[in-house]
Design goal:
alpha/beta, 23% strand, Rossmann fold, 11 strands, 2 domains, 36% helix, 234 residues
Amino acid sequence: MNIIFTRPFIDSEDLMMNFFSTGHKVIHMPTLSITSANMDPINPKDYDALIFTSSNAVRYLKLKNQDKKSKCFCVGSLTERTLRLKGFNNTVAASGTVNALKNIILNSDQNIKNLAYLCGDIISYELDKELVQEGFKVKKIINYFSKKITDLSRESHELIKKYPANIALIYSKRSAESFDEIVRKHSLSELMTHCKVMCISKKIEEYLKSKGWNKTELFNPGEELIKIDQIKNG
């Protein structure tokens, strides 16, 4: 199958290689550019726990020391995996949505009240304000910036023309917005007629359906290969 990956290469390299090694055609079409916000280093001991709503927040985390025993709340398994690769072991992962993450925090140890929330400059859910209303003290720390990409490389354009996509993987609403803009800007709609857009959340799926993408399907992070093989063999 011909598969479009929309995440930055650093987040997709292993998965892309897995698909390539199993005979799928891989087309990389990044939809977001991620850069560091050059945050001031923090001391984890100043907080009862740290909150991460993306692997990018983990990637650009800066610490004053190497104390990695802090409790860490993660939005999903991919973010948790990135944290564990950095040496954090006291982690709890939600099911992939910020609302689920909020519920986990609300039901956590009652001694956990002072939180650091690491996130990007663009968020779709004001988790910090929601937690403050629940009695938590939350310091919101923006440690990365994201910018939508609406251009398409000549190489990727030629690959899509030669190998029309069967599957496109979308991991955030902003990525979905960029994906839709790229397709329209570069007149790729006809080539996407048979493309099924796989969405990591219902919110993303609803947005794409509102833009006319009718062939959509939800998937869980980490289960991309399984899901696509099911589609291929179904």
